[in-house]
Amino acid sequence: MSRKVKDIMKYREISLICLFIAIPLNVINIFLGFRWLTILGISLLAIFFIMAFTLWRCPVCKRRLPLRFDVDTDLNDIYRCPYCDTKFLSGEIID
């Protein structure tokens, strides 16, 4: 039996996309020196940190989940909370 919760995995994917866009933008900006690239890169990096620290929490125990990223297990897979051992995927808690 599964319970519906807010889809924190979708928030996680959005925040990681912001991170993966922000880093190359800032590196490219070192060579080009455009002010708007700086503002865009820093804004995307800020969005990543805000989403990671406010929305990336376990839906059961409400503790902040680790920020580390593993390509093999984090995207489109069941995530397991390291604190309460709850499994969740796509907005549902899996019993």
TrEMBL record:
Species classification: Bacteria, Bacillati, Bacillota, Bacilli, Bacillales
Protein name per its UniProtKB record: Uncharacterized protein
Keyword annotations: Membrane, Transmembrane, Transmembrane helix
Residue stretches spanning the membrane: 12-32, 38-58
